Amino acid sequence: MPIRPENRSRYPANWPEIRERIRARSGNRCEWCGVPNGAVGYRQADGVFVFMPRALREAGYKAGDTVACNDGTSLKIIRIVLTVAHVHDHRPEACDDDNLAHLCQRCHLRHDVDHHKQTAYATRRARLAVGDLFDTASTPPQ
What we know:
Blueprint: H1 15-26, E1 40-43, E2 49-51, H2 54-58, E3 66-68, E4 74-76, E5 78-79, E6 83-86, E7 100-103, H3 105-111, H4 113-134
Antiparallel strand pairs: 1-2, 1-5, 3-4, 6-7
């Protein structure tokens, strides 16, 4: 996942070297599900990645396209993008190798789901608090 601009300064100066070391360790594959970086295909309902069949490639399908199936369902063609995830301690400063993993989008998002819920909640609360400052209906009469 991209580094948020407000967190960029919290990463160590040698982050590019750390990131490359983790990528090399993984063999450029997701360390949890094994899918290779840059692979093009689709996910089955159970999450298993399927490389794009030759027939679809020859038909001109590419990542981002949706393929209609005969049974009325559809498949979203995706390109796997691996990122380095903080797996135990989410703080950007926590860059020990045992806290980092090279993960695909699916594994990274599934791992971070609780963390994302917490940050989304905090963001909504902060927005509500700012809104209260300017809400004339909630301002006590003078």
